[in-house]
Amino acid sequence: MKTADFDFRISPGRPDCLAAVPVRDRSKLLILRRTVPNPSTGLLLTLRITLTAGDLLIINNTRVMPVRLIGSKPSGGRIDLILVRERCKRGLGSSL
């Protein structure tokens, strides 16, 4: 498996795809079973019934950085930026 397998694009017209507030018990799980060729998904609240003896649970404790900037001008112009890469130690970034 490669990290590129997890790349995805968010449609410009669908900013609602970005979570503003996480709902922990409704968080999705990626389930990989050696006996099944394709991964499946589940919900965190079903974790107790999903795991069986001998399973390996990998916890990702990374944090989402606040990288979305929304601005507007007095004339009515709007801009929506998502920072994708840090460019220097002062925290400036590249955007899409």
Explain what the structure shows.
By secondary structure, the chain is mainly beta. 4% of the residues lie in helices and 26% in strands. It has one domain (3-95). The strands form two sheets. It has a three-stranded antiparallel sheet, with no helix packed on it. It has a two-stranded antiparallel sheet with strand order 1-2. A hairpin with an 8-residue loop joins strand 1 and strand 2. The protein is elongated. The two termini are 26 Å apart.
The helix count comes to 1
Q: How many structural units, i.e. domains?
A: 1
Report strand order across the widest sheet.
Answer: 3-4-5
What Rg, in angstroms, do the CA atoms define?
18 Å
- Average pLDDT works out at 76
Secondary-structure element series:
EEHEEE
Q: Structural class of the helix and strand makeup?
A: mainly beta
Shape: elongated
Low-confidence stretches: none
- Portion of residues in beta strands equals 25-35%
> Total number of β-strand segments?
5
Proportion of residues in helical segments: under 10%
Instruction: Report the major sheet.
Output: 3 strands, antiparallel
Distance between the termini: 26 Å
